[in-house]
Design goal:
Elements lengths: L8 H22 L3 H7 L12 H20 L7 H24 L3 H25 L1 H6 L1 H20 L6
Helix pairs in contact: 1-3, 1-4, 4-5, 5-7
Length: 165
């Protein structure tokens, strides 16, 4: 007997968006003063203004939710469960980063977190791609942004050792 596609796919989409945006909300709680804090830090010349981050992350979280939903819909597909576990773990590290950097001012720990996040995200992209290629492709903008954010985290941390430990 072939596995069934989940019976309420649109509820599933809502659930994956809820999970993705819950991670965003957890990170946002740590980032209430982020714009002011970020503006006080020495930054590399290529750092974007604080106003860029909110819109970019909103789009990325929406894409993440759709990607996870597409994988979730592939009931019975080999690797599906592992891919979704990777997704949830990287999402938790994503939320943790804001706390490490903005709330607790731990630049080194934030950098370690984002490096592990990047590695898990690469694994998630590959796992999603194997289950459903479009789901992996939907995570590529997120991977590109986290790659940029990793470099930015490193640069800002190194430029602000007294503030970011």
């Amino acid at each position: 007997m072939a596995p069934k596609t989940p019976s309420h796919p649109w509820l599933g989409l809502a659930g994956w968006w809820l999970l993705s945006f819950a991670a965003a909300a957890i990170g946002a709680l740590a980032s209430i003063q982020a714009a002011a804090f970020y503006g006080q830090l020495a930054q590399p010349s290529w750092a974007p203004p604080a106003s860029v981050f909110g819109p970019v992350w909103t789009v990325l979280y929406a894409l993440m939710g759709v990607a996870a939903w597409l994988v979730w819909r592939e009931a019975g597909q080999p690797g599906r469960r592992g891919a979704l576990v990777l997704f949830v773990v990287q999402l938790a590290l994503n939320a943790l980063w804001s706390w490490l950097f903005f709330a607790w001012h731990l630049g080194g720990w934030a950098f370690a977190d984002i490096v592990v996040l990047w590695l898990l995200l690469v694994a998630t992209v590959v796992a999603f791609w194997r289950v459903r290629a479009i789901a992996g492709a939907l995570l590529l903008p997120y991977l590109a942004w986290v790659s940029f954010a990793t470099a930015l985290n490193w640069a800002v941390w190194r430029l602000n050792p007294s503030v970011l430990g």
